[in-house]
Amino acid sequence: MYTDDMMMSLYVVLGIFLLRAARNPSANRSLIAFAAWSSFAHAAVMTVMAFQKAEERELLVGVADLVVIGVALIALVPAKESVVQTSAAAA
User: Fold this and answer.
1) Interatomic CA distance for residues 20 and 13, integer angstroms
2) I need a surface site. Which of 10, 14, 56, 90 has the fewest CB within 10 A?
3) How far apart are CA 16 and CA 62, in angstroms?
């Protein structure tokens, strides 16, 4: 299906950017958060599809994978630096 190819191209590009973001995760918090929340959104859509069509139940394995990825990204994203720490580092 062409939709699988399109999704794969998006995830490959996102993966490349996430690998680059891993070098400086504090500066790339929004990209990491986007990847996490888009995984949750994708899992939600797949869950709805799996329950609407009986032949799509195998999607639930992918849902679990996407939820694990989203949780891992949220857990690993560094905390936001406070203004005091940032200004002290600049001085």
Assistant:
1) 11
2) 90
3) 21
Provide the 3-class DSSP secondary structure of residue 6: helix
Which segments in the chain show pLDDT lower than 70?
A: 82-91
Scan for tokens 């996490």, then name that residue: 36
- Confidence at residue 91, expressed as pLDDT on a 0 to 100 scale: 58
| Phi (first) and psi of residue 24, to 5 degrees | -145, 75
Cα 51 to the chain's mean position, in Å? 23
Amino acid code (one letter) for 29: R
The packing angle between helices 29-52 and 59-76, to 10°, is 160
pTM given for the model: 0.75
Q: How much of the chain is helix, strand and coil, in % rounded to 5?
A: 85, 0, 15
For residue 78, what is the DSSP state?
P
